């Protein structure tokens, strides 16, 4: 019996068999495919009982609803099943009663992207692909790099020549072959696409590869289980290309259709003011993305054209979603507030969702008793340079108790 | 019934009651105290059955043998129970059969130190201490900062004025009060000690606080459980002040005395060549530490006088320990090898233990079938600047398939 029914185009709805590796032939790269499962079949396996007796504390506990036929490509790195904290000190501060923070910076390479990579690498191995590639300078790149190293898979990562050296360093440490492209990110992306076609490499890009988002949806499954199947009213996430929030929405929908949960959350898309194509388009109730050069400190979500735009619009429409735009100042301020009330230090893109929550609270758009879950998608150590902009270095003092008394005002 | 019998001086062996907060009155700060438990009592609670039925997947699963009377100070941050990987690709590369890597960079603030801080903060809360302090610029500081933020505990961190801004930033993000001391680390340490006495703050320093190492020992407990109570022949760790390896040794000894394991590992202390006071002293079979100005890229273990020297000498003597010194080049090279064969990216001090393993293999001092466990104590993202020294940035190329073919030699 097969788990997967077919792959469906997220733009036009056309169905494809699993022999199609990437996007819809008619819509091109805009038509990313979505994996549609035989949920009646899966229902017989994936039950609350099954989950309760499952000792695997990583995303592979959801194997019955992951797009893999075999376990050969499963990484030893422990990915997923990240902590979900009830943020009590934060609740008091914000005068809310039910805030849950999922710290996905605790993944192996310190970001949410590891969920996608784990599935992508496993699929590459299942398909006997010997080489995998990606264009990125950010979390997708370091994630691919680390997982490929762990599994011993050759990999090429296309990076724009101007990318920060710190980010390139991590890829080189892991032994990736870094192709430093004379050009910007878009050039690197297109070049990677071309090279993948030419050399038959497997492309780890959520924009065209339908399986990566299947890893992302597991964050929703975990939230369901960690909240004992009581679904939060709102699920807040930072949004760039759109595949992360779309993946998480897919997860909730699947658990709903499997009868494991009895309601769905409202999805809240938070974007940076300077990079908000998804939110703009959704608010206009349109399906056309107009381009603006993106500009935000939150580099992982600094997106001009959202490469998974239709998936995220679908998610927002289906969940009667909400959008919030936040400024860079609000993002940096949110970084401090989150760290100071929960101990979770997130990178700018990782805390953009939280900045959105703070804005909703300020506007009075959240009821006290409403339950809110949000995912922090990357560790603050990934971008300490940005964090520096959020704080002020103190003056130095002499090692003298009198001076100290004055300084701290005791 | 009381868990703790007494506190024992690690230098002279004198016993103290729990009313003593810090070090031995006769030996001064050299006489750090060690918590001695009533193991006959604990034996009745902490059994294999107890552990098997314990669903807590963090270090609090060992509560029966942790120095806390109550759960009030337990942090919501999920600390400990980090993954232990059987490193199969590495085994093949090194022609060994049993290598286990414990990735403690997966802790909340990305280092092994979180184990100590979790217990230290809980103890501070139990003792009704309102303010906690430390002198550090490294992992102990960021760890204290993050956990104190999570628990809402006021804290002062004494930092030498020359400390890297990136490290200070994290403390400021968490909202710690940073005292930037006009002087070096030793000045900051002494000033912190004085201020703690003067103002009654609780001091989070493994050098004088007996409870912190109690958190560290839990790594040993986890290794025992994760290996199904089959103890590795060698336990390899990076060593600076000495309290981490001493803590882990204490963990093994306690499980041995509780009858949970039937043998003990040989402890292997790996230090940087330029900061090896523990290894020098042990090899001379001495108990006198001679001072040399420390110099190594591995800043967390760059130590001139080991502040927990007697504890680590005891651990090495009791386990017939082994010492290895490694150069900075070997540390940087080990960083790459570890990342490339396991996907685990460690900071320089985090992979120094692994550099020691590589050296032992090179010297032929490890048998193929021997089992070796090693702890990676900190995430590589903590010190990307050092990682940059280990790799070379590639040349940039034009986005052209012909160029790419030439470049990658296809």
TrEMBL record, chains A, B:
This is Threonine synthase. Belongs to the threonine synthase family. Catalyzes the gamma-elimination of phosphate from L-phosphohomoserine and the beta-addition of water to produce L-threonine. Pathway: Amino-acid biosynthesis; L-threonine biosynthesis; L-threonine from L-aspartate: step 5/5. InterPro entries: Ser/Thr_Dehydratase, Thr_synthase-like, Thr_Synthase_bac/arc, TrpB-like_PALP, TrpB-like_PALP_sf. It comes from the Bacteria. Transmembrane segments: none annotated. Pfam families: PALP. CDD domains: Thr-synth_1. It comes from Clostridium rhizosphaerae. Its cofactor is pyridoxal 5'-phosphate. It catalyses: O-phospho-L-homoserine + H2O = L-threonine + phosphate. GO terms for molecular function: threonine synthase activity. Keywords: Amino-acid biosynthesis, Lyase, Pyridoxal phosphate, Threonine biosynthesis. Its EC number is 4.2.3.1. Residues 77-378 form the Tryptophan synthase beta chain-like PALP domain.
């Amino acid at each position: 019996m097969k788990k997967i029914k077919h792959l469906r185009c997220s733009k036009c709805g056309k169905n494809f068999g699993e022999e199609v590796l990437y996007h819809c032939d008619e819509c091109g790269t805009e038509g990313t495919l979505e994996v549609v499962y035989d949920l009646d079949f899966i229902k017989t396996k994936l039950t609350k009982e099954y989950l309760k007796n499952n000792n695997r504390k990583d995303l592979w506990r959801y194997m019955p609803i992951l797009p893999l036929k075999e376990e050969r490509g499963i990484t030893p790195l422990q990915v997923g099943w990240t902590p979900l904290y009830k943020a009590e000190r934060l609740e008091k501060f914000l005068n809310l009663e039910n805030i849950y923070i999922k710290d996905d910076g605790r993944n192996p390479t310190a970001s949410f992207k590891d969920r996608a990579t784990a599935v992508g690498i496993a699929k590459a191995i299942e398909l006997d692909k010997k080489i995998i590639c990606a264009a990125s300078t950010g979390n997708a790149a370091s994630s691919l790099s680390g997982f490929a190293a762990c599994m011993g898979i050759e990999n090429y990562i296309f990076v724009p020549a101007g990318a920060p050296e710190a980010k390139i360093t991590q890829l080189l440490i892991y032994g990736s072959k870094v192709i430093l492209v004379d050009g910007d990110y878009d050039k690197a992306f297109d070049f990677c696409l071309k090279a993948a076609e030419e050399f038959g490499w497997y492309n780890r890009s959520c924009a065209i590869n339908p399986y990566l988002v299947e890893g992302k949806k597991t964050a929703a499954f975990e939230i369901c289980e960690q909240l004992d199947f009581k679904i939060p009213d709102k699920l807040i996430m930072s949004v760039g290309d759109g595949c992360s929030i779309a993946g998480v929405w897919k997860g909730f929908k699947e658990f709903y259709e499997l009868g494991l949960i009895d309601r769905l959350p409202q999805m809240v898309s938070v974007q940076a003011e300077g990079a908000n194509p998804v939110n703009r388009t959704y608010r206009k109730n349109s399906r056309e993305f107009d381009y603006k050069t993106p500009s935000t400190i939150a580099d992982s979500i600094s997106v001009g054209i959202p490469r998974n735009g239709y998936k995220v619009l679908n998610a927002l429409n289906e969940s009667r979603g909400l959008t919030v735009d936040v400024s860079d100042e609000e993002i940096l301020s949110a970084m401090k507030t989150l760290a100071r009330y929960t101990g979770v230090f997130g990178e700018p893109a990782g805390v953009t969702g939280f900045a959105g929550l703070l804005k909703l609270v300020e506007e009075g758009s959240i009821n006290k008793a409403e339950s809110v879950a949000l995912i922090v998608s990357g560790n603050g150590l990934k971008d300490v340079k940005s964090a520096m902009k959020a704080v002020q270095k103190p003056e130095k003092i002499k090692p003298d108790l009198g001076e100290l008394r004055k300084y701290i005002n005791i």
